């Protein structure tokens, strides 16, 4: 089951209990605003090795179960496990089907047997894990020889426009922190898994105004969860300053929000 420590996690990443609670609250609204999540998950699916037919797959950080259902359609002969740290997401996903088992659990300590899965799929979940070395270690343990881990995550440079605009407005921490791409490279290389592919690609969304972006982040459960974030309501003067600063980034399509997405395909040696 999930380990939900009260203490702030190393490296400035948010407390997992806050992450679980935030995404649980967002379960009902998540799918209506999940454009990025759908696009990235689809890109990740396209990176699955051709001809894969694992006996069992794991959707690690399944959220509302959208990609669990896609995997079930693509791999009809395989048994599926959907796992998430947020009970609210699992409660939303379970009635919609797609997996044989829905489990509350932590990617850093998977409640699964050794060598029990041929595929681990994880889209936009592991950026919330402070100990990514443990995530890779658990993937290595749970994968069968020849099994594959495919994951998409976020790295430094994500929401940089919002970060810079808040810095200009008040200098406080308002935007979630993420690992560097170089850290992903180093940790994957040292994991014991064979790195088939590891790349970083920007994905840019556009919004008519700042409120539309911040509303979407809240609806996704991905608003500011950092230790050191400002408490209480954000003052009107700071909001005005934020809007003014962000307007400097405006493009013809609207206000850009850039996500730096990490895509990886790793294989456990035979």
Task: Provide a concise account of the structure shown.
This protein is α/β, with parallel strands linked by helices. The chain is built from ten helices and seven strands.
Enumerate how many helices there are, as a single number: 10
Oligomer: single chain
Lateral arrangement of strands in the main beta sheet? 3-2-1-4-5-7-6
- Spell out the helices and strands N to C: HHHEHEHEEHEHHEHHE
CATH topology: Rossmann fold
CATH superfamily: Vaccinia Virus protein VP39
Average pLDDT taken over every residue: 85
Label the structural class: alpha/beta
Distance between the termini: 29 Å
**Topology, number of strands:** 7
How many domains is the backbone divided into? 1
Runs in which pLDDT lies below 50 for 5 or more consecutive residues are: 1-12, 26-32, 222-233
Proper CATH architecture: 3-Layer(aba) Sandwich
CATH top-level class: Alpha Beta
- Mind summarizing the main beta sheet? 7 strands, mixed
Q: What proportion of the residues form beta strands (DSSP E)?
A: 15-25%
